[in-house]
Amino acid sequence: MPFQVLPASASDIPEIAVIHHDAFKDDPIIGYLMRNVKLEVKQAYDKQYFEKSFTRMDLTGSVCHKVVDTETGKIAAFAKWKYPYTLTPEQEAEKEKLDLSRSYPEGTNVELYESFFHQLDAKRKQYMDDKKDYFLHILIVSPQFQRRGLGTMLIREGLAAADRDKAKAYIEASPKGLELYQRHGWKIVDTIRMDMSPYGGPKDAVEELLIREPGAGS
Known about the structure:
Layout: E1 3-7, H1 13-24, H2 30-33, H3 39-53, E2 62-69, E3 75-82, H4 89-97, H5 110-127, E4 134-141, H6 150-164, E5 169-173, H7 175-183, E6 186-194, E7 205-212
């Protein structure tokens, strides 16, 4: 079955939102943040989130690609990279006007949500420089298309650019994706640990934080 990497656009959001839900619903941390949110509400929330992702991408360094099954036209995987960027004072003012805030649909475990993302945000500030480093913010592969090399296709898009710039690349990884990223040269630099047992999850759920040096794993 042939696959092709193409730029993703806002018209792809409905498919991307479905893939995102399917890929993360059983994640040991993310899967519990909105476990009590109705499916149709969660899908609407995901669509709204990705709409924000495609808003003025030039102001956030975002570069989005999809992998398409060329026989059916179906989106099989999606990645959102953030490339290094520097804004002019005028662009900074424009970015300030963007609504990039997080909202919480009814049923969200707000305390858990804020705790997790507060830690992610703090670690990004600790390990990343938006003006120099690359960041693989989102990588999702539809469960029906996993283990066919689609994640690697999307990873290589960003790493090729990072290596041309001799830049580092940062990523946050669940245990499920860790081996793939390590094969491409990422190394663990820190770990976020959360006790998910009060919510029905594992007592020691982890999100690994990794950095790849230029040319590593290639």
